[in-house]
Please model this.
Amino acid sequence: MAESKRDQAYNYLREQIVLCNIKPGEALDEKRAAAELGFSRMPVREAVNKLAEEHLVSIFPSRGVIVNQISLADFQEMLDVRLLIEPYLLHLAMPRVERCDLEEFRDAMISRIDNPEVEADSFGHDFDYTFHMYFARKAGSRYLTSLMSTLMTQSQRIRFFSAVAPERITESYREHVAIIDAVLAGDEAAAVEAIRTHLNNTREGYLRISRAQESFFRA
Model:
């Protein structure tokens, strides 16, 4: 099924925001976006409304559309919510995950651990987003999948703001492998503990990014 113009506009603008091509606090020019896409203003406006629902932008009658800064309190809450729902998503997903999928994820991570020169995640090939959303989708709840997508979008924004220290990237890869190994072994308790360890370490990494890119964050 062909992607609608609204969805094309949404994906395009979301990428611009996540990659910080339109920085936090800057205006999003709907007219310019429509011209770049070759669309009328309507699908762009619909896309902007969806971005507003996901708290990526705010719409002001007098100022137009502004890309939101990330609230330190909000990103802490985002991780708190992930700590609550990801163990449950994993519980729901465990009977539905495919061993071949997990082995493919694992091979990708081991390759990156063993070969540091391998290209890092890009917006189009974001392992962290794909990996966590895999379990959300396998859980089979469209409401939780939608919530998880919103949370992961905010997580993507922070990760792409600033390069995390190389050692943290490798640590993250190892944390994903630990999750995968526990799931492959059928050990849900160990998988949940591995997820919690990963998210707690992620919190520390994001705090480092917030200190390095203070202008992109607010209290």
